[in-house]
Amino acid sequence: MTHDTPMTPPVTPDALTVPRKVPEYAGGKRNIVGLTREGLKAALLEIGTPEKQAKMRTGQIWQWVYQWGVRDFHAMTNLSKAFRAELDEAFVIALPEIVDKQVSADGTRKYLVRINGGHEVEVVYIPEESRGTLCISSQVGCTLTCSFCHTGTQKLVRNLTAGEIIGQVMLARDDLGEWPEPGVSTADNGPRLLSNVVLMGMGEPLYNFDNVRDAMKIAMDGEGIALSRRRITLSTSGIVPEIARAADEIGCLLAVSFHATTDEVRNTLVPINKKYNIETLLAALRDYPRLSNSERITFEYVMIKGVNDSEEDARRLVSLIKGIPAKINLIPFNEWPGSGYERSSWTQIKKFADIVFDAGYASPIRKPRGEDIMAACGQLKSATERARKSRRQIEAEAGLGG
Ligand code: SAH
Ligand code: SF4
Fold first, then answer.
1. 142 is known as an active-site residue
2. Which of 122, 242, 300, 385 is catalytic?
């Protein structure tokens, strides 16, 4: 994102106000959104559903919730009235709440989403000609401290639950009006508005592995959201031990925040590199199964003036990744106040892209989207955090806040 906001230091949220436990729902009810099929079946058994019915009931509820977008047990007309009432007694179908929505001149939509407990994450929908991509978050804040990323200045508040992760997809479908009519074939509806999901919002998805996995299983389930695993991309800063697990247990496409071609520079940009250096990371990527030209690894490379954008860097990059089916996504650095970094010049980005391209790799330059609504990578939540801070300050001045 580019913007003209005055240079003020980034705001770090007040860690003291943060409850870490996920709060419960009224009446002690359990949320079924985010349960895996096995989890839902177990929950049904717990409320006394007969063992021999549980699997079928799971499938029926699953379809209502994830295929048709139904939020009310009483509307599940293929279940008996008595069973619907039992479900309603024990469970809720709860999603996070969209508290604000902005639509950019280019069609990008940014949703501010409030999760249970009051914290907020941002979700971005990016329409393109042939697809629509939803960028979702996996954590509130991040434990890693990549120096160019605004999220890195926000302390980790908590991991999102699987329900909150898949809930972002469901909310976007609500907003796009994209739930099919029950009973009507979806085959004739043309390309989906929401056809792709990228885990590139706030947080490190591989540090919230189980919840991300469960949510993506729901996203990929043919009787659920039904996105192909090849339409889901998980972006990681390079948590090496979890990469093989992601291939095995999730099986989606992988993007890696590479960003530098020497350990020295990567240590400062992506400090997890001190634990898992470039060599270790590349070895894990070479082992990522199913690598083929259609399932290439995306190397994300943020272009920062004078830091990682030299022609020498470009040449080193192509020699490092030799042999890995890859695409290099060049991301012009989105500036934010106090980062101390600047976006590389257009000519430099172009030169870099050409070297990578000439070496045989696709090297698209990510077009900044939604600039007018601050929806770009690494920017999420920064305006909100600022707004929150000033609200807090106002409350404090009025003697209300703690
Ligand atoms: N934590 C994960 C996923 C979220 S970040 C990861 O780091 O991969 C999504 C992408 O946005 C990452 O490639 C990240 O490096 C990039 N990014 C973060 N801040 C940015 C900024 N200010 N400008 C451009 N890209 C940024
Ligand atoms: Fe966390 Fe990714 Fe930002 Fe690094 S780039 S601080 S891993 S969100």
1. no
2. 122
* Tokens standing for residue 310: 């030299």
Reported as a single tens digit per residue, the pLDDT across 330-388 is 999 998 888 999 999 999 999 999 999 999 999 999 987 887 777 765 555 555 554 55
Among 58, 23, 22, 20, residue whose Cα is nearest residue 38:
58
**SS3 track for 322-357:** CCCCEEEEEEECCCCCCCCCCECCHHHHHHHHHHHH
**Residue 395 binned pLDDT confidence (cut-offs 50, 70, 90):** very low
Least-confidence region, from 186-195, 223-232, 298-307, 340-349: 186-195
> pTM of this prediction?
0.88
The highest-level CATH class for domain 26-92 is mainly alpha
CATH superfamily of domain region 97-397: Aldolase class I (3.20.20.70)
358: which 2 tokens?
A: 């000439």
Evaluated on CA atoms 139, 142, 144, 150, the torsion sign reads positive
Decide: 298 in ligand 2 pocket, CB within 6 A: no
Ligand 2 centroid – CA 182 distance (Å): 40
Please name the residue that has the structure tokens 């230091």. Answer: 9
Question: What's the one-letter identity of residue 348?
Answer: Q
Supply φ then ψ for residue 385, to 5 degrees. Answer: -60, -40
**Where in the chain are the domains?**
26-92, 97-397
The predicted-structure confidence for 12-31, as pLDDT tens digits, reads as follows: 333 333 444 555 788 889 99
What percentage of the chain carries pLDDT values higher than 70?
Answer: 84
- Closest C-alpha to ligand 1, atom 4: 200
Query: In degrees rounded to 5, what are phi and psi of residue 51?
Result: -45, -45
122 catalytic residue (yes or no):
yes
Tell me how far apart the alpha carbons of residues 307 and 315 are, in angstroms, rounded to a whole number: 15
